[in-house]
Amino acid sequence: MARIRILGLLRLLFVLFVLALIVLSGVMLYKTFRYKSRQLQVAPAADVSIDANAAAEHLAQAVRFQTVSYSDPAQFKSDEFTNLRSFLEQTYPRTHATLAHETVANYSLLYKWTGQDQSLKPILLMGHIDVVPVEPGTESQWTYPPFEGRIADGFVWGRGAMDDKAAVVGLLEAVEQLLREGYQPKRTVYLAFGHDEELGGPAGAAAIAELLHARGVEPEYVLDEGGAITDGILKGISRPVAVLGTAEKGFVSVELTVEGTGGHSSAPPPQTAIGILSGATSRLEAEQMPAAFKGVTQEMFDRVGPEMNFLPRMALANLWLTRPLVVRQLTAQRETNALLRTTTAATIFEGGVKDNVLPSRARAVVNFRILPGDSVDSVLEHVRRTINDPRVQIAPLKGTAMSEPSPVASTDALGFRVLERTIRESFPTVAVTPSLVIGATDSRHYTKVCPNVYRFAPLWLRVGDIERIHGTNERLSVENFAQIVKFYRQLIRNSDS
Ligand SMILES: [Zn+2]
User: Fold this and answer.
1) Domains in the chain: how many in total?
2) Which CATH number covers residue 366?
3) Is residue 28 part of a domain?
4) 197 C-alpha to center of ligand 1: Å?
5) Residue 474 CA: distances (Å) to CA of 67, 131, 142
6) What is the pTM of this model?
7) Catalytic residue at 259?
8) Would you state the pLDDT for residue 201?
9) Among 67, 199, 291, 360, which is most buried by a count of CB atoms within 10 Å?
């Protein structure tokens, strides 16, 4: 009798469980189907004919100037920068005849194309003319030498072909073409090309931003590099995605030092300076700053979620249930982890001189990339609290740039709307999303003249292409460069309407 009653109860529980599962999956499916695309619907841009080969030839020529930013200032080759400037003057005669242009901090370039309607705020389009060095020893791995500016196999090869001469030459091509067609912008257009972006822009971009600030220039929006079109790179989505940076992370390196007793190692204390320091760094790795699915990152997944494949789409459509799981998935991968939290990276560890001598000092540097919402101060506070050991001295590393996370640019402002529209018109298969840039760009210098700084260039990046930027075999397809020129052309026109 009792057995039968228990069996009945079990059966009832099972039925209830199945019913709950059916209801739950029904709700999840309903939410998934209601989770609609938020992509702007626009007609593709009318195709304008441009001479793709001539444009690519100009990019290839620009690559030949070795405008390298070295960390050792003695290696700076000023001739390469002035020769590139002369080349641009010769190649874009209309631009240089019509636009006011000046050099800032000797080598950076600033252009002003005065618009017809002075009541409209100007726009500012950025690029940088310097490039990173080719890592010594890797020269022979290049299919074509990095500064030969070769066009082969449908690509322009060489250092700077993507980062960032594609933007500089692409913008000038677009302006020259618009001038050839007799176009006069309503809104003033500034072009600003820094010469030391790869060193953090302390001379170039900083001086241009300062100059514009002094002149009272307040752009409607600023566009710099930082985001691109990713194709097959983001997991869980088959269509290409244009990641349009609306914010970038801050940067601080923290130096940890431990003073030891020194002396002979035959009668050591329980912990040497090295042991104390390694305890401190491993505590920082074990106790990372908290991850949160919020802000720009949440906005990014809100936009991209409806475009994703079924399972990730269902997970993102049902965050009321799946949030902890989604956060766990995203933090498990380093690329997405960096979007969710201030990251911790121990990058330098030094101490000790001889095997039988106690170290008198040990030193480590830990680099943090700061999420909007956190700050340099909150990072330092986290480091102190986590290490919690008075024997470890903690201070920001001297001599390196430190920056707070950027303000977050609006997705409702004209700049975002014009960029979104221009991307969708120029690349109809591409989904657009705001995103967080995890590296640092020159554009952070401009947040003092404009709250709406966006970071995007329409480089079409496939798997393996990100490594070419700053790496070996940097190249850009002739086709992609023509798209870039057309994109900037359309962007300048759209900014007027
Ligand atoms: Zn760059």
Assistant:
1) 2
2) 3.30.70.360
3) no
4) 7
5) 15, 11, 9
6) 0.91
7) no
8) 84
9) 67
